[in-house]
């Protein structure tokens, strides 16, 4: 079973509280999603490989640890996942970015695919799929399947808010995938929205309704 990591860092909890508030503006929502994406990315990249390198400081020669150069891909689930990409890219600016386009059918709540484009060497990359919301888990599970169909192997999923139902569905469908969650919520409502949640993440990021 993959790792399920729920953040308890005070900065993340504070920023998630601001995200949830219905009075938070579109601009602030966007800034917060980016900042939380970066804070989560800091932890989610903890296991990146290092290699030894010899350098000269102004004082002497020394051996230091530098990133081994493991290639990374960030894959947002359109459209709300885009809100977490810039925060991740500020940590790993050379990462490539793939996109999976999925929307939830309003009646069935099942994901419908409309776009998928991955870096050509996705099979060799460490992949972070990002989406603010893990509700039923259908979108995340389908996104992981699409990335695997394109050759992706080493996959981590990162979200801001997760319902227990979504965590269960994703970890059962893809037990090899690690899941990083900024906040774990109570449950879904009858429309498969997360409670207490933050509403519709895409609408709040882009000011649509
Ligand atoms: C939202 C969210 C996830 C999905 C989660 O996207 O960003 O992708 O719903 O729900 P699930 O876990 O039940 O599948 P939405 O379909 O609203 O599309 P959008 O990002 O384009 O607004
Ligand atoms: N998608 C959202 O944007 N919010 C939810 O609570 C559930 C799905």
Automatic annotation (TrEMBL):
Gene3D superfamilies attached to this UniProt entry: 3.40.50.2020
Keyword Transmembrane assigned: no
Catalysed reaction, written as an equation: UMP + diphosphate = 5-phospho-alpha-D-ribose 1-diphosphate + uracil
Cofactor note: Binds 1 Mg(2+) ion per subunit. The magnesium is bound as Mg-PRPP.
Enzyme Commission number(s) of this protein: 2.4.2.9
Record-level Gene Ontology MF annotations: uracil phosphoribosyltransferase activity
Ranges for domain Phosphoribosyltransferase: 6-208
SUPFAM superfamilies documented for this protein: PRTase-like
Pfam families found in the cross-reference section: UPRTase
CDD domains per UniProt: PRTases_typeI
Known cofactor(s): Mg(2+)
Regulation of protein activity: Allosterically activated by GTP.
Keyword hit for GTP-binding: yes
Pathway(s) served: Pyrimidine metabolism; UMP biosynthesis via salvage pathway; UMP from uracil: step 1/1
Keywords: Allosteric enzyme, Glycosyltransferase, GTP-binding, Magnesium, Nucleotide-binding, Transferase
Binding site for 5-phospho-alpha-D-ribose 1-diphosphate: 79, 104, 131-139, 200
Binding site for uracil: 194, 199-201
Function of the molecule: Catalyzes the conversion of uracil and 5-phospho-alpha-D-ribose 1-diphosphate (PRPP) to UMP and diphosphate.
UniProt cross-references to NCBIfam families, sorted A to Z: PRK00129.1, upp
Family recorded in the similarity comment: Belongs to the UPRTase family.
Annotated HAMAP family: Upp_B (MF_01218_B)
Protein name (record): Uracil phosphoribosyltransferase
Organism encoding this protein: Gallibacter intestinalis
């Amino acid at each position: 079973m993959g790792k399920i990591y729920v953040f308890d860092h005070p900065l993340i909890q504070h920023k998630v509280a601001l995200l949830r508030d219905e009075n938070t503006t579109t601009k602030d929502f966007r800034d917060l999603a980016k900042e939380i994406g970066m804070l989560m990315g800091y932890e989610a990249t903890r296991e990146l490989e290092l290699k030894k390198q010899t350098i000269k400081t102004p004082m002497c020669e020394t051996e230091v640890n530098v990133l081994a150069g493991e290639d990374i891909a960030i894959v947002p689930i359109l459209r709300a996942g885009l809100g977490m990409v810039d925060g991740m890219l500020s940590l790993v600016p050379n990462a490539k970015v793939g996109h999976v386009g999925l929307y939830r059918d309003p009646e069935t709540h099942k994901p419908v695919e409309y776009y998928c484009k991955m870096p050509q060497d996705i099979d060799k990359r460490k992949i972070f799929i990002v989406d603010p919301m893990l509700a039923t888990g259908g979108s995340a599970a389908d996104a992981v399947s699409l990335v695997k169909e394109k050759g992706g192997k080493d996959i981590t999923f990162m979200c801001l808010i997760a319902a227990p139902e979504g965590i269960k569905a994703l970890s059962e469908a893809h037990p090899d995938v690690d899941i990083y969650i900024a906040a774990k919520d109570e449950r879904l409502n009858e429309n498969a929205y997360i409670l207490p949640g933050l509403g519709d993440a895409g609408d709040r990021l882009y000011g649509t309704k």
